[in-house]
TrEMBL record:
<feature type="transmembrane region" description="Helical">
    <location>
        <begin position="143"/>
        <end position="162"/>
    </location>
</feature>
<feature type="transmembrane region" description="Helical">
    <location>
        <begin position="101"/>
        <end position="122"/>
    </location>
</feature>
<keyword id="KW-0812">Transmembrane</keyword>
<feature type="transmembrane region" description="Helical">
    <location>
        <begin position="203"/>
        <end position="223"/>
    </location>
</feature>
<protein>
    <recommendedName>
        <fullName>DoxX family protein</fullName>
    </recommendedName>
</protein>
<keyword id="KW-0472">Membrane</keyword>
<feature type="transmembrane region" description="Helical">
    <location>
        <begin position="43"/>
        <end position="62"/>
    </location>
</feature>
<feature type="transmembrane region" description="Helical">
    <location>
        <begin position="174"/>
        <end position="196"/>
    </location>
</feature>
<feature type="transmembrane region" description="Helical">
    <location>
        <begin position="12"/>
        <end position="31"/>
    </location>
</feature>
<feature type="transmembrane region" description="Helical">
    <location>
        <begin position="74"/>
        <end position="95"/>
    </location>
</feature>
<keyword id="KW-1133">Transmembrane helix</keyword>
Length: 271
């Protein structure tokens, strides 16, 4: 029963986040920065709305468990295409300090979203995939946790490199902000290592989900309410990002409860 609850809330949190990002994109007429760093332009403005509608529909299908596997597999590859053809060229061409980890923040967030879509597909009920091509695409699903853990690991390092900035995000009513910066950095690093190495994955993913949800309530939601229009609505976007990451952590926890998890994942993907 607990497994199904984790899976249910993980899927809903992720689906609502994708739909929310789509709505924000439709309202703003701009790509959310973690989707694409390319500024809005009249020559491709219609693409922004097409992608926004696509995210909205995909998020609703995932939330209500409709055509879950094919929807999430296609979504994962769409997000990967944005990484390859939008983020990577933009970072190396337009950001002079591209070798700094901070330059890849949005790229890593999008990678985690792609990993979440793959994990949703992995935990979905068996569906007939249309054709060998889609079946082949679904074989990437077991690697979803690595997409997510790369973000966790790099963000954990960021907590030490950019400690002053991160500590400034700790609510003023919480004492010892530098301690919590280091503590959460270690928690992110440890979570990534635990999930990748399959050590205490269920417990660690649960604790990670709790930590992320606390961040959502105490940091991102507060900033979104106080400064909803900051930087084109990025505080609101951050709420959906954190909700999605919470959902991904819950999804990992639900899949970790399956006996002999690493053997089972191959059975979920059609041959």
């Amino acid at each position: 029963m607990l497994t199904s609850k984790f899976n249910l809330f993980g899927r809903i949190f992720y689906g609502v986040s994708i739909a929310g990002v789509g709505i924000l994109q439709l309202l703003s007429g701009e790509f959310r920065r973690f989707i694409s760093p390319i500024p809005a332009g009249e020559s491709y403005g219609f693409i922004i709305y097409i992608v926004g509608i696509y995210f909205l529909i995909s998020g609703l299908l995932i939330t209500f468990d409709k055509k879950l596997r094919i929807t999430s597999v296609i979504l994962a590859y769409v997000l990967i295409l944005f990484i390859v053809f939008s983020h990577i060229p933009w970072v190396f061409i337009h950001i002079p300090d591209s070798l700094e980890l901070g330059a890849f923040t949005n790229t890593l967030k999008l990678s985690a979203f792609a990993g979440g879509a793959l994990l949703i597909a992995l935990g979905s009920r068996a569906e007939n995939m249309p054709g060998n091509f889609m079946t082949g695409l679904s074989r990437l699903a077991p690697f979803g946790k690595y997409f997510f853990c790369i973000m966790l690991f790099i963000f954990g390092i960021d907590h030490f490199i950019y400690r002053d900035f991160v500590s400034s995000l700790v609510p003023k009513w919480i004492p010892l902000p530098l301690f919590w910066t280091y503590f959460t950095g270690i928690a992110l690093l440890g979570s990534a290592i635990s999930i990748v190495t399959n050590i205490k994955v269920k417990l660690v993913a649960q604790l990670l989900a709790i930590m992320l949800f606390i961040w959502l309530l105490t940091i991102h939601l507060v900033l979104a309410i106080k400064y909803p229009n900051w930087n084109g609505g990025e505080n609101i976007t951050a709420c959906f990002q954190c909700l999605a990451f919470t959902g991904i952590a819950l999804t990992i926890a639900s899949q970790a409860e399956v006996p002999q998890y690493e053997q089972k994942i191959s059975e979920r993907i059609p041959g």
